Amino acid sequence: MESMTVEYKRELTDDLEKEVAAFLNASGGELFIGMDDDGGVYGIPEPDSTALAVIDRIKNNILPATLGLFNVEVKHDEHTPFIFLTIAQGLEKPYYLKKYGMSPKGCYTRIGSQSSPMTLKLIAELRSQRVAHTLSNALSPNQHLSFTQLKIYYAEKGFDTGGEFFLRNLGLLTDDGRYNYAAYLMADNNGNSMKVARFRGTKKLDILERNEYGRSCLIKSTYQILDKLEVINSTIVRVGGAAARREFRLVEKDALREAVLNAILHNDYIHGSYPVVEVYDDRIDVVSSGGLPVGMTEDEFFAGRSHPRNRELMRIFSDMDLCEQLGSGMKKILRTYPRDIFDISEHFIAAGFHYNKEAVAILKEQADGGLNGGLNGGVNSSVHDSGTKLSVNTQVVLEALKEDGTLTQKQLADLTGLSLRTVQRALQELIERKFIVREGAKKNGRYRVTLSY
Fold first, then answer.
1. What is the pLDDT of residues 187-230, one digit of tens each?
2. What is the pTM of this model?
3. Are 308 and 328 a contacting pair, CB within 8 Å?
4. Strand order from edge to edge, sheet including 206-214
5. pLDDT digit string (tens) for 145-198?
6. How far is CA 236 from CA 278, 358, 363, 453, in A?
């Protein structure tokens, strides 16, 4: 049934832009093309070309820029195709139809299940409440930027990175052609500084390790943080015979990944704060600055209602397959964890992921059995039934090689936070004890894991 946040269209019509602008100016929503008013699937011919036409019309016919604020998918009910359009609430209201300008004929909002024209008074009120500093209209503090890393990531995904419109199409330039703050975050060199810090115990008192990821393209920094957490949150195995083999992680993998991506995507960068991940003996905290976006309630936040603070980042992260459908991240987190893992204040949003109790019990068994480090060693590890013990640092290196055997010694050191000499000793131990073998040439070879631990 149609509602404040749901609209059905039997076919693509001339009022598409009006409906999308109305959702942008309200609380966002979902628009289905190829469905009857009661939600029954009618279908749509040539769905792929229709989806491209929808994207083109929204991108070119609505102002301010909407890239990063909507997502278009072709879906099927059995064999009948339809188009599913997700629209976020925008920060730069009022959004309007380009050909009619910021007028009642160009500005719409949702009232009940209808898209209704705005009054001149409402248009003026929304314009006065616009967020003054967004990544698109705030200037980069450095106008001498290069984007080699960003172009490599886009080229690997099959995008054309040539031509003068590459940066403008990504929303990295102001109207007068200067680099904006989104460009600064995506540049090869910048002041971006995100941290993964590890503490002894359960309070922020005794720091054991601090890894800084930044000064480079935000995409690169994001991959580095996700890789680091993959090592920290590696798989723990309890083996008591084939039927009793069980695997655990300290924190549910997908939920942690989504929390980190949300923190990076929705952080308030303009005021100089950056996301932080803090690793304790009982939990992992993911913290972003800025609080909830203007106009978003806590209920909307937990319902997964998308209201991107940084639409330019949403667009780029979506192109890199680092985020999925708008609002889906929160749903993944809440499948496993309750709402109260979040601490929301005016200036920060923190998510605290307490460790799986069975995983912690295994680590304590390891420590009691003489393994050096336990949770204070800062990483989890796996247990197997051979009785052979590896040092914590060696286990960290082994887990990293399970994920990618092509890593070099330096890459292993950067990924794990260990010194190069420690990595070399760990590799020597793993080879001598036949947990790994080296294959191929010295320069282009790889490590193959031969034993599980």
1. 999 988 899 999 988 988 888 888 899 889 999 999 999 999 98
2. 0.68
3. no
4. 206-214, 193-200, 276-279, 283-289, 348-354, 342-344
5. 999 999 999 999 999 888 778 999 899 998 889 999 999 999 999 988 899 999
6. 20, 10, 8, 9
